[in-house]
Amino acid sequence: QVQLVESGGGLVQAGGSLRLSCAASGSIFSIKAMGWYRQSPGKQRDLVAVIPNGRVPNYADSVKGRFTIAKDNAKNTVYLQMNSLKPEDTAVYYCNAGRYSDYNVGVYWGQGTQVTVSS
After folding, report:
1. 3-class SS at 96?
2. For the chain, does the N or the C end have fewer beta carbons within 10 angstroms?
């Protein structure tokens, strides 16, 4: 089993920045991709960014040029640097990890961290 723990959410004004972190523990050898998804009230959970082992990151069109995903293998942690935040970025952000080095959603989820962007 894999446990994912997110941190770094909060309240920020539009145009500001936040960095989310997700630390993995447990059967980390099985993790081949990590990513971030987000969900707003009444909406489905959507991909924000994913980084499979040995492959380039993939981003949702809405965050390209503003968000950057990075993985520190030594710390088993994935980060999401979010710049130029907009009110529409407000959502619960979930860390995700998968057992395959691809861009599909993985089977492991964190508990989520709230990001609120005020206008």
Report:
1. strand
2. N
Neighbours of 71 (CB within 10 A): 20
Contact 115, 7 (CB under 8 A): no
Tell me the C-alpha distance between 18 and 16, whole Å: 7
Chain center to CA of 77? 11
Q: How far apart are CA 59 and CA 48, in angstroms?
A: 6
Partnered with residue 68 across adjacent β-strands are 81
